[in-house]
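Chains adopt folds. We examine one example:
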Amino acid sequence: MSSNSSAKQSARTLAHKSKVAPEYRVILWLAALGFFMQALDATIVNTALPSIAYSLNVDPLQMHNVVIAYVLMVAVFIPVSGWLADRFGIRNVYLAAITIFTVASLGCALSQTYSQLIIGRVFQGIGGAFLLPVGRLALLRILPRNQFLAAMSFISIPGLVGPLIGPTLGGFMVEYATWHWIFMINLPIGILGFILTCTHMPNVKLENLPRFDYFGFVYLIIMMVALTFGLERLSQGGWSIATVLAILALGVFAGLIYTWHAQRDLRAIFRPDLFTDIRFRIGILGNIFTRLGSASMPFIIPLMLQLAMGFSPLHAGLMLVPLVFGSILIKNFATKMIQRFGYYRVLVVNTILVGLGIMSFAWLDAHSNIYTQCLHLFAFGCVNSMQFTAMNTLTLKDLSKAQSANGNSLLSMVINVCMSMGVALVGVLLHLFEKIGVGQSTLWSFQQTFIILGAITILASLVFRQLRQFRLQDQNHPVS
C-alpha cells in the first residue's frame, strides 16, 4: 500500500473513531436538548412581549424585566453549576435543572399578573443556567476524549437553531394562539428530557472536592443583581436618584470586595491570575462595553417593529430571520478574516461597523422595500456575529489548560450579565426619551435609543486599540 493510501486510511480511521459511539448517543441528544431549550427560550419571548404586556395590563416599554429576569439568573448561577454537578452528581443536577425549568415554564404560562410572570422567569433562568454547562460537563466526564470534539460540534447546532426559529415561532404562536404557548412548548420537551435523564444519564460525581467559595459567590451575586437592578430602577422611575445611585454603588463595592477576596483565597471562583494575560483582559473589557450596546438588539428590534411601526408579531419575528441567518453564515468566514487581517484590525474596524449598524436602525422605515429591510438586517447579523466570534476567540485563545475552564465560565457569566444590563439600559433610554420627547412619536424614542447604543459600541473600539502591540504576532499566529 502506498504512503498516500496509508495516510487516507489513517484519516478515515481517525474520523471514524472521533464520531460519537452509539452507546453515548442518548447522552449526546440530552445535552443538545438542554442547549436547545435554553437557546430557544432566550429568544422566543422577544416577539411576544407587547402581547403579554397588553394581556397583563402593563406598559410594553416596561417589559424588559421579563428578559432581564431570565438572563440575569443564568449569569448568577453559571459559576456554581460545575461544582454542584461534581458534588451531587451530573444526573441529579441535570434532573433538577430540567425539572425547575419545565415547572417554571408552566408557571409562566399560568401567570395572571406581571409579578407572577417575573417570578416564573427567575426560576426559568435558574434552571436554564445549569442546562448547557452541566450538559457539556456530562459529555466531558462520560464520553471518551477522542469523541468530545464531535459531540461539541453536534450540540452547537441547537444553539444556532434555537435563535433562528425562536422569534418567528414566538410571533406565530402569539398571532394564531396565545402568548401562553411560548412557555407551554417547553413542557413536552422537558418531560422527554426528564425521562431520558433518569434512564440513560450516569450519576458521575467527583470525590474530595475542595470547599466551594461561598463568600465569593455571594459577592458576585450582589454585584450582578445590584448593577442590573439599579439600571432597571432608573427606567421604572418612582425611586429617588440617591437611592438608585446607592444600589449601583453597592454593586461596584461588591465587585471590589470580590477582587480583594480573590487575591487572598486560593478557592476563589475566578482567580485574578486570569487577568495576567493581557488579551484575556482586553477581551473581557471589550465584551463588556460592546455587548452593552449590541446584546440588546434581539430585544429592542421586535419591540420597535411592533410598537412603533405596526408590524404583527409574526411579521416582526420573520424580520429577525435574515439577522440570525447572517449571524450563522458569517461564522464560516470569521476565522479566515482573522487569519488574514489579525485581531487588531478586525476588532477595531468591526466594532465601529457594529456601532454604525446599530445607529442605522434609527432610519429603518416601515414602508421601505422588504428586500432592502432584509438586506439591512442580514448585514447587521454578519458584523454582529463576526464581533462575537473574534472577541470570544481573543479572550480564550492564550489561556493555559488549567485556566481555560475558569476563563470560559467567567466569559459566559460576563456575556449574560452584559446582556441583562444592556436590556436594562434600553429600558432606561426609552423611558428617558419618552419624557424628553413629549409630543414625539414612540418611533422617535426608539430612534434616539439606537443612536446612543451605537455610540457606546463605537467607543468600545478604543478598548481593542490596545491590541496594536500584538498585530504582527497575531497575523503570524492568528488563531490558536
